[in-house]
Amino acid sequence: MKNKGKVIIISGPSGVGKGSVNGELLTNKDLKLEYSVSMTTRAPREGEVNGVNYFFVSKEEFANAIVNNELIEYANFVGNSYGTPRKYVEEKLNQGKNVILEIEVDGATQVLRNEENVLSIFLMPPTLNELESRIKGRATESDDKIKARLDKALLEIPLKHNYDYVVENDSVENAVSKITDILIREKCTASNDESKFKELVKIVENIVDQKYTYFINNWEANVKLLAHNKEAKKEANDFDARGELIKILSSEVYRKTLAHGDFSKINDIEYVDFKIQKLMFKINFFSIKQRSDFSGD
Ligand code: 5GP
C-alpha cells in the first residue's frame, strides 16, 4: 500500500501572508503538495474565484456540511464560517500526497487533536505594525472588520507554541526557503536534497569540539557530584554531555533562525558560532534536565 501523505497546517494571523507563501510552495513539484480549498460563508473579494480561492456557500449550505460530517474542521472567524472539506483531503492523502491546510488557529487546534500524521507551522509577522499595514493594505474591508482581524491576531499569536515550527514571514522568499527545508527535514518531499539541519549539526559538532570541551567536562563532573541516589548516579554515569550539548544547540539555532533570521545563513560558520555563544549562557551546567524551550526571551 502507498504511504499516506501528511496534513500540513499553515496557520497564523490574517494578513501574515499565508496565501503568498503557499502559492510559492505549490509551484515546487518536488514537495508533492496539494492545496485544500476551504468552504466559507464570506462574500468573495474582488478577483476571488469560486472553487479556486474558496467554495463560497450560504450559511445554510455550511450548516448542512457540518451536519453531514463533510468538514474535517471548521471555525468562525470575525463573523464568517470557514471549514475544510473532508473528501478532497482524504483522497489526496490516500494517494500519498501532502495536503496544505491554510487555516486559522481554532481549526488548526481541531486538526491537531483529531488527525494523525500532521505537520504544523505557524507563520509570524515580523512586527505587529507590519501586520497592521498588511491587513489595512488589502483595503477590502471596513474599519471595524480590520479591527476585528487585528484583535483576533493578538489572540492567535500567543498560541504559536502549540505548533511544530514557528516561521517568520519577513519576506516570502525567506519564509518559503525555511518551510521547504522543514518539509525536507520531515521527509515530506520527493527530492533527494538534504535538510540544511544535517549540515548545521556538523558545524555545531566542530564548534563544540573546538571551543566547549572545558564546559562539557564541567557539566559531566557537576552532574556526577550532585547525584545522591543510586538512580541519579547511574544516570550521571551514562550522561553524554557532548552529545546533549550538540543536540540542544543545533535544534535551538535551527528553531531561532526559523523564528527570526535569514535562512541563507543557517550553514554559515560565523553565524552559527555567534548564535551558540549566546545560547551557551542558557545551558544549566548543573543538571541533566534542561529547559525544553529557551525562547522565553
Ligand atoms: P480570509 O477571510 O482572510 O480569507 O480568511 C480569514 C481566516 O480564515 C484566515 O486566517 C484564513 O487562513 C482562515 N481560513 C481559511 N480557510 C479556512 C478553513 O477552512 N478553516 C479554518 N479554520 N480557517 C480558515
From TrEMBL:
Sequence ranges assigned to domain Guanylate kinase-like in this UniProt record: 5-184
Enzymatic reactions: GMP + ATP = GDP + ADP
CC per GO annotation: cytosol
MF-aspect GO terms: ATP binding; GMP kinase activity
UniProt-listed Enzyme Commission number(s): 2.7.4.8
PROSITE patterns found in the cross-reference section: GUANYLATE_KINASE_1, GUANYLATE_KINASE_2
Binding site for ATP: 12-19
SMART domains, per database record: GuKc
Known role: Essential for recycling GMP and indirectly, cGMP.
Entry protein name: Guanylate kinase
Organism whose genome encodes this protein: Mesoplasma florum (Acholeplasma florum)
Phylogenetic classification of the source organism: Bacteria, Bacillati, Mycoplasmatota, Mollicutes, Entomoplasmatales
